[in-house]
Known about the structure:
mainly alpha; Arc Repressor Mutant, subunit A; Tetracycline Repressor, domain 2; 2 domains; 80% helix
Amino acid sequence: MKNIKTGGIRAQQKERTRRNLIKAAFNQLNAEQGFTSLSLREVAREAGIAATSFYRHFRDMDELGLAMVDESGLTLRQLLRQARKRIEKGGSVLRTSITTFIEFIDKNPKVFLLLLRERAGTSSAFRSAIAREIQYFIVELTDYLDNANQIPHHYNEAQAEAMVTIAFNAGAEAIDFDIAQRQKLIEDLIFQLRMISQGAYYLYHKEQIKQSND
């Protein structure tokens, strides 16, 4: 029994140190310094461990970076899921979702910077990981649209892909915007996404009319 308890404490300590390493790496990201510029030694120092102890938690800095990407995507997806719950209580779908997204960027600029930079970085592993995270967003949004819209799945999938792409591109601009600029960005983004949604409906019904006339 004592060994089981000791093992549990060690596992908790290891997980805590692992979390500290991820947090330390995020803390050291900034507008000038991307992930590839981070020093293993400096990250370990901020996490409160010796550099040699780093390897007990990650094989190398790339594995740490991939863990950061996973956490970034998960954090944002969880926030958007919460936003959809608020929508179910009567909120505006687009406004609630976009406002939540921009607020996330405002409160977590380093998290979004990681996704943004490494999306076009030199590491194929990072690019693949971020592409996977973006695909998760597309799949979840498609599922939501399938339940909310009376049009076929492939229309909703195309909508979701366009919406996520536009939102991420807008997010890149929002990082450097002040409050007024971000509010305008939100309104512009809502208008653009509404056009995509209405365009999907129009295209579907136009094709239905064409098929009925053939």
